[in-house]
Design a protein that fits this description.
Among the domains are: 161 residues, FAD/NAD(P)-binding domain, CATH 3.50.50.60; 88 residues, no CATH class. A seven-stranded mixed beta sheet has the order 7-6-15-16-17-14-18. Strands 9-2-1-13-19 form a five-stranded parallel beta sheet. It is globular. Helix 1 runs parallel beside helix 7, helix 1 packs across helix 13 and helix 9 crosses helix 11. It is an alpha/beta fold. A hairpin with a 4-residue loop joins strand 11 and strand 12. The structure holds flavin-adenine dinucleotide. Flavin-adenine dinucleotide binds next to helix 1, strand 18, helix 12 and helix 13.
Length: 437
C-alpha cells in the first residue's frame, strides 16, 4: 500500500489513525502542536484545568470501548437568559419550560402554536432565519433563538442556508400549562442535561486515551505543515522535512488547506474564499470562591451581553478546580470583517456582561485568567457553500487528498462525529486501495 500520511491529530485524526491501526495498515502522522487533541486539549494553570472550549461528551460511539478512559456520568442544569427588558432566566430548553414565562408571553406562544398548526404543511423555508422562525414561532424566536444564533454566528440569519443543522424542537401546547414539563430530561435541561466527562478533569483525557492506543514511532509532534505539492505528491513542514504521500488525510481547516496547495487552480482558491465561519474568543477564569448560579451552562440572546454562552465546568466536574473554587468559561463570537473585536474589547465586554447577569459581580476573586482565540469556531453554510465544497473535494479527492473532521470536511460536528469522520476516511482509503489491487 502506498504511504498514508495523516496531518492533524485532533479527535478526527486520532480516530482515523486508530482505525488504520486496527486494520494493520501502516501510516505516519504529523501534528503541529506538542500534544494531540486539537480543540479537545486542556490547559492546567495553578490547580485549575481549563478545556480549550467547554467540551462535554454527549455520546460514546463504539470506538470508546477500546479506550482506557474513566468517564463520570454528569447531570446539570442549563439556563437561558431571555431577551426581555428585565433580566429573566428560565431553565433550558425553553420549549419545555413555557409555563414559567409571564402570562402575556404564554398567550402569544399559544397563538403561535395555533397558527403553526393551522398552516401545516408549511412552505419550505428559504433560509435559516425562516427555518428557525417556522420551528419556534415568532415569540420564542424573539425571546431566544434570533439573538442567540446571531451572536453565535455573527452572520445575518437570512443569509444562511435553511439546512444549517440545529436542534430546535417546536413548542407544544402541553408545555404552556406545565404538562410533561418535569420529565427527568427536561427538568435538568434538554440535550446537554446528561452527558459524560473525564473523572480526572480535563477533556484532554479523551485524546490522551486515544493516543495511548497508537504506536509512538509513527507519530510526530511539532510538525507544522507549510506546503502541499499535488504534482510531486509531497508535503513540506516548517522544519523543512519533506514526505511523499499516496493518500493524504488532512484535518486542518479547509481554507488553510487550500492556502497550502502549490499551483492551485484559480477556481479552487475562489471556492475556498466562499467558506464562511465565525471565530471565538474563549475566556477561562479560575475563581477562588464558589459561584452562586446553580446551573452549569447558560445561554444568552441578550444584546447587553456580547457573549452567547457561559459555562461553569466545576458544576459538572469538581476535579477542574481546587477545592472551594469554581471555574467559568465564556464564549464570544467575532469575525475580522463582519464583527471585529480585539482581545481587550472582548475581555471588557465579557466582564461587563458577567456583572450585568449577576454571574460575577466583582473581579476580586479571579485567581487565574486565560483568554485565547479559536479562529475557526462555528462553520456557516450560506447558499454558495455546497457548490464550493463539491468543487474543492472533487479536486482534492482525485489527487489522493481527504478532508477529515469538523474543519477538514467543513461541516458542524460534535467530537463523536469528528471521530466517525476519521473512521470513514480510513475506510475510504482502505477500499480505494483494495479496488486498485
Ligand atoms: C467552542 C467549542 C465547543 C465545543 N464543544 C463541544 C462539546 O461540548 N461536545 C462535543 O462533542 N463537541 C464539541 N465541539 C466540537 C468538537 O470540538 C469538534 O467536533 C472536534 O474536536 C473536531 O476535531 P477535529 O479533529 O475535526 O479538529 P481539530 O480538533 O481542530 O484538529 C485539527 C488538528 O490539526 C492540527 N493542525 C492545524 N494546522 C496544522 C498544520 N499546519 N500542520 C499540522 N497540524 C495542524 C491542529 O493543531 C489540530 O490538532 C466544540 C467545538 C468548539 C469550537
Amino acid at each position: 500500500m502506498s504511504e498514508i500520511i495523516l496531518i492533524g491529530l485532533g479527535a478526527s485524526g486520532l480516530a482515523c489513525a486508530m482505525e488504520l491501526q486496527q486494520h494493520g495498515i501502516a501510516f505516519t502522522a504529523f501534528e503541529k502542536e506538542p500534544v494531540p487533541g486539537g480543540l479537545t486539549r486542556s490547559e492546567r494553570v495553578d490547580g485549575f484545568t481549563f478545556d480549550y472550549g467547554p467540551h462535554i461528551i454527549l455520546d460514546t460511539p463504539k470506538l470508546f470501548d477500546r479506550l482506557s478512559l474513566d468517564l463520570e456520568d454528569c447531570a446539570c442544569q442549563s439556563t437561558i437568559f431571555l431577551n426581555t427588558a428585565k433580566i429573566l432566566s428560565i431553565p433550558s430548553p425553553i420549549q419545555h419550560h413555557l409555563h414559567l414565562l409571564p402570562l402575556a408571553q404564554r398567550i402569544r406562544i399559544f397563538s403561535d402554536i395555533l397558527r403553526r398548526n393551522a398552516n401545516q404543511p408549511s412552505l419550505k423555508p428559504n433560509n435559516f432565519h425562516e427555518h428557525i422562525l417556522a420551528q419556534s414561532g415568532k415569540t420564542l424566536f424573539g425571546l431566544f433563538f434570533e439573538g442567540y444564533e446571531s451572536k453565535r454566528l455573527r452572520f445575518p440569519l437570512t443569509g444562511i442556508d435553511a439546512s444549517m443543522p440545529n436542534r430546535i424542537q417546536p413548542p407544544a401546547l402541553a408545555h404552556l400549562f406545565g404538562v410533561g414539563a418535569m420529565t427527568a430530561q427536561s427538568a435538568c435541561g434538554g440535550h446537554d442535561a446528561r452527558f459524560k466527562y473525564p473523572r480526572a478533569g480535563g477533556i484532554d483525557n479523551l485524546p490522551n486515551a486515544m493516543m495511548a492506543t497508537l504506536p509512538n514511532g509513527q507519530i510526530h509532534f511539532q510538525h507544522v505543515l507549510t506546503e502541499i505539492d499535488l504534482q510531486k505528491k509531497q508535503v513540506t513542514f516548517a522544519n523543512r522535512r519533506q514526505v511523499f504521500f499516496g493518500h493524504l488525510v488532512l484535518s486542518l481547516p479547509l481554507p488553510e488547506i487550500i492556502l497550502l496547495l502549490k499551483n492551485v487552480p484559480k477556481a479552487i482558491t475562489e471556492a475556498a474564499e466562499q467558506l464562511v465561519y465565525s471565530s471565538l474568543y474563549i475566556l477561562n477564569l479560575g475563581i477562588d470562591e464558589p459561584l452562586s448560579p446553580p446551573w452549569a451552562i447558560g445561554r444568552t440572546p441578550r444584546q447587553d451581553t456580547d457573549f452567547y454562552r457561559v459555562t461553569i465546568p466545576t458544576h459538572y466536574s469538581k476535579a477542574c478546580a481546587p477545592s472551594g473554587s469554581d471555574s467559568l468559561t465564556v464564549e464570544v463570537a467575532h469575525h475580522e470583517q463582519r464583527y471585529p473585536l480585539s482581545e481587550q474589547e472582548a475581555r471588557q465586554r465579557i466582564y461587563a456582561g458577567l456583572k450585568q447577569l449577576d454571574i460575577l459581580t466583582s473581579p476580586d476573586h479571579i485567581a487565574v485568567e486565560w483568554l485565547h482565540n479559536v479562529r475557526y469556531g462555528h462553520i456557516i453554510y450560506n447558499h454558495k457553500t455546497r457548490a464550493a465544497l463539491e468543487l474543492i473535494f472533487s479536486y482534492l479527492n482525485e489527487n489522493g487528498v481527504y478532508g477529515c473532521g469538523k474543519y477538514g470536511e467543513w461541516r458542524d460536528m460534535l467530537m463523536s462525529h469528528a471521530m466517525q469522520s476519521g473512521i470513514n476516511t480510513a475506510q475510504q482509503i482502505i477500499s480505494a486501495t483494495a479496488a486498485k489491487k
